[in-house]
Design brief:
five-stranded antiparallel beta sheet, about 180 residues, baseplate structural protein gp8, domain 1
Length: about 180
């Protein structure tokens, strides 16, 4: 006789995972690659097995994380027609303080928007970006900062996503908004 198991992840379990992920509040963007790709207009595809980002310029604390869903314009749960546009879809940020658990279970948010900001003075240019969770710092490092040099980081923790792109060049007196959409 063969044992048969039938399981399902509960909606409340999914919501709990999303909330725990967001409440961790220990996300960092790493930006890197100050020098050109072989073809700067056509960067290579990153490896899905990557655990580190090469040529890190800095690590930047993420300032915002929220669950999001594809916009359901006109539904009871969605109050407007999207907060941002990403890869052809409109997305709605879910306000956790105003959204009851019963509605969260119904809309089933499994995507997280994570954001940070780079000041123009913090970089000249970069071509790669990664999202890390649970960085560890070298003893004596001030852990209340928003920006860290690679020499201040002893362990990068878990890398969730890596992006290679064409050059992003600093513009005086402007900020660079870092955004990633990840699926849990």
């Amino acid at each position: 006789m063969v044992d048969v198991y039938k399981t399902v992840e509960t909606k409340s379990g999914k919501i709990n995972n999303v909330l725990n992920f967001i409440n961790n509040n220990n996300f960092y963007f790493a930006i890197g690659r100050s020098f050109p790709w072989d073809d700067d207009e056509d960067p290579p595809v990153p490896s899905s097995t990557a655990r580190q980002l090469d040529d890190v310029i800095l690590y930047k604390k993420c300032m915002y994380a929220a669950p999001v869903v594809q916009s359901g314009c006109g539904t009871v749960q969605v109050t407007n027609c999207g907060d941002f546009f990403f890869k052809g879809d409109t997305w709605e940020v879910i306000d956790l303080e105003k959204t009851p658990d019963s509605v969260l279970e119904e809309i089933d948010p499994s995507f997280i928007l994570i954001e940070g900001v780079l000041e123009a003075r913090e970089y000249t240019q970069f071509r790669s970006m990664a999202l890390f969770m649970n960085l560890s710092f070298v003893a004596g490092t001030n852990v209340n900062k928003l920006t860290y040099s690679p020499s201040e980081v002893s362990s990068t923790g878990v890398m969730y996503r890596v992006v290679y792109h064409t050059p992003i060049i600093s513009t005086p007196n402007k900020v660079c908004r870092l955004k990633m959409l990840i699926k849990l």
